[in-house]
Amino acid sequence: MILTDPRSKESGNVGRRIRNRERSDRTQPALYTIEAMPEYRDEHIPLAYLITFRAYGTWLHGDKRGSVNRFHNRFGTALIAPNERWRKYNRSLLTHSPVKPKSRQRALVKEAIRETCKKRKWEFWATNVRSNHVHTVVGAVCKPEKILIAFKAMPPKNCVKLVVGVQVKHLG
Known about the structure:
By secondary structure, this protein is α+β, with helices and mostly antiparallel strands. The protein has one domain: Histidine kinase CheA-like, P2 response regulator-binding domain (Alpha-Beta Plaits, 2-Layer Sandwich), CATH 3.30.70. The protein has helices at about 85-95, 105-120, 145-150, and strands at about 1-5, 20, 50-55, 125-130, 135-140, 165-170. The longest helix has 18 residues, at about 105-120.
């Protein structure tokens, strides 16, 4: 089933379609469906959040790729400029070497994210655990910061502790 933005002139507008995954792949039934929302209302309620967070120590402030912090984290604004001295300082503050999870560890992180969504009754849409960061799409009626905090607090016995940076995008 493909959901299309009612504002689009053509029902086949690729830019606003969301592929509805099979219910067997979700931890909760869909919160937002055509049946539940017979008329479209633009109330600025996101359908889901795309949350990206980095593994511990893999992208520090001062890195040549640039970085963000709580003061420099708006879409379209400049990143924090590279600063090798600051990067070295931040590297010296790490309590252990940067985390780069292997295949088995990535599977554990994925399962821990699913369990967290199930426990908190959030709609799990998708996740992709990479070697140095995680992308996950979650539908929840709360602020995205609460979702991120829950993922960062995943039990260490089930997964590798993955914390440092975060990027949140509202979908819908």
